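Risk register update: the risk that structure generation would not scale has been downgraded. Supporting records follow, first protein first.
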Amino acid sequence: MERFVIGGMKHCGKSTHGRLLAAGRQLPFFDTDEELEKFYAGTTGDALTTREIYRKLGEEEFRKLEAAVVTRLLSDDGGRVVALGGGAPGNRFIEPAVWERGGCFIYLEIDPDEAFRRVKEGGLPPFLAGADDPHLEFMRLYRDREQFYRRYAKVIFHAHENASAEENAAALAKEVECYEQQLR
């Protein structure tokens, strides 16, 4: 069964690369943020964005909800590609066994300053918006989260900033194929 889990910092390209990897392998694609929004709407009747859910619930309740969604996606049978929210690998409510049986974890590595630039362009998320120094807080989060990405990673991929999404996806597919060949 082919199952791939893509993790990395916010705005590193998890969804873009995940969709392209899924299409190339003819697998269904799931974005945990989108799945979280659907789950929340289905249980509460409120159609909110992930940011709005985070603001409404607070971090702990949000992480519990995220844990339920990620656990379901990585525990269901069948091949798939799953793009995680940036903080999911460090979510204390997700059992380590979920990551072990979740499939090939791909860490999409990105330069932290480039990641912060992209985050600022998209608008600071709640976990950074209230910080005295959003850049400093982002760098702290990057360091904290990177340890989890590296711990679970079977493949570490650094997208080339001057390449198109399709070119990067093709390079990522080759990295995944190399990993699979090592397992044989």
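Supporting record for the second protein:
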Amino acid sequence: MTQLTTMEKQPEPEKFPRMIRRDLLDIVKGWEDGGGHQEDAYHSFINVLKRNGITLDQNTKVLELASGDSKFLDNLRSHDVNAIGVDVRPRGRNKSPQVIARIEQLPFPDESFEVIISSSVFDAQVYDQNQKLMTEEI
């Protein structure tokens, strides 16, 4: 996330296509829209944070990258986690806030979040993204 000052001239941002999914075999298509046990995922997430000395409270700002159908995001928010999702193609039902954006160009100032989570977003076989820019932006 790039913090801008009014005096700096910033380079023109790289233009990215809206769709990032690569063409895959039909058997693979649709996996990212699948279900899953969100409550188990939430507890696994909390346990990983605890093992690393991180606890969440209502003031901790969490960003879920590639929030997709927002099921995990909805689950976080049902546990009073202050979370927002980002996806280039959000498919949630507007229960939780999702921002349409690419990870290479996140629309947030630096240090807006204390915790950033993603799952499978760096899979180059599935997604056509600039992983170097993604890492720098995160």
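DSSP finds three helices and four strands in the chain. On this basis the risk owner (M.S.) recommends closing the item.
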